[in-house]
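To whoever picks this up:

The parser on our side crashed when reading a file containing two proteins. I've narrowed it down to the boundary between the first structure block and the second sequence. Both blocks are reproduced below exactly, byte for byte. First block:
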Amino acid sequence: MFLLVGGLFLTNQINPSLHLERYIWPIILISIGIGFILRPRHRQWRRWRGYHSNDQMRQEPDSPANPETTGTLPNDYDRRDFIDVTAVFGGVKKNVLSKSFKGGDITSFMGGSEIDLTQSDFTGKIIIDVTNIFGGTKMIVPPTWDVQNDITAIFGGVDDKRQINGVTLDPNKVLVLDGTCMFGGIEIRSF
């Protein structure tokens, strides 16, 4: 990576007629976009499956349903329990209906996503990894959920617009928002 960047800056000294200095920022933005499109998906799912299979292996080391030995998924695994949204130059609206929601990934690059979690349910602590670059995410959550914000904001922000006056937060339902918000925004609402 350093050789490519250094070579890009040195091309004007090798061939002065190219005038690449005006193309530096478009090349950087295109590289970031290609990186988002080509990145591996389902990170959260793999993390959950690894945790679940390790837990199952501790309880039943010789079980034939162990994903480590058979290569199959646990019986209670369902793709609807996770959310995986990628919005690049567009918009995505998604309603989550799972009663055993386990988290997921949301990526918005110059686009937007709207996630409605009011029909979903879970117990314990779940993590949603949110990455916004020049984009936005609107999340609608029940008012009793405890939403913890661990977002790193760079020229962006996270706005919690929930009305929590007089509402008792359920300590068994903790939603952790993790990730990065650069030149974008995340809005949290409840109705």
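<<boundary where parser fails>>
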Amino acid sequence: MIYTVLMVLFLAALPQSPAPSLVFVSNELARTITVIDAATRRPISQIPVPGRPRGIAVTSDGRTLFVALSDTLRMRAGPADGIIAIDIATQRIVERLPAGTDPEQFALSPDRRWIYASNEDAGTATALDVQARRIGAHFVVGLEPEGVAVSPDGRWVYVTGETSNTVTVIDTRSQRVVASFLVDSRPRAATFSADGRTAYVTAEIGRSLTAVDVATHTPVAIIAITDSGAKPVGVVLSPDGRLAYVATGRANTVAVVDLVARTMIASIPVGKRPWGIAITPDGGTVYTANGLSGDVSVIDTRSRRVIDTIKAGAGAWGIALRH
């Protein structure tokens, strides 16, 4: 017994190897999650999931992967609808959480207590209490809600409405809708700057990126995305907040936007129909999930060139990183 205890203490005292950097891709048509080793840029496994995976996120502690699943039923919760939790260490589904009907995109609160999800077919959003494992609130938002973003301080949630051309603002303190404002046509994704003062919203038909003053929930600038055939969807910001990288969908590019000058400054060819997009914490690498080619483009942001293409799965949709 003493020997066993000493061995446990000895092993615990040994230096722990850092967790490997991983890239996770939700494959909507294949109904799988591709796991990629970021160091070797090679797929290492495929995790089957019981539904159509789209929204995807890794918790800040790097232990859990959340994935939004839905099925083909409309306007009511089906057997596949929900958000699953995958233990990253074992790559096994450990829990299914309720998230309303047809959850698409979602965002985690900074304290990891809440998940806010858009319910595309119902025109609602759902607040999921992760600790209690139950729905804490429902919100009426714009039509065909998709993009969801939580401000860095956890105070505001922005939900885009594709066909109402709106962004709905939820106050997380009161768990109530407090504002709604118009943006360019068919808004898709939203993200906040690191200081929480500005939000950015892509518009698929408007072919633009809208800058929003968060203090007043008011659009202050519209930046044109000029690539031929561009249908802007996913967006991420560089760590210094000076650049935005916008996945352009049918244009098969990533547009680079100077947020200080508020103009597009570069275009990077990637795979077919880039949708989800992610950036490493150091800003050196951007990844896109390419739906039609079923792969991931790896972009070196310094040279603004694709340095690798990684096979994923059919209908590659969302992308999340563990670093």
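After patching the parser it read the second block fine. The longest helix spans residues 2-13. Residues 1-15 have pLDDT under 50 and may be disordered.
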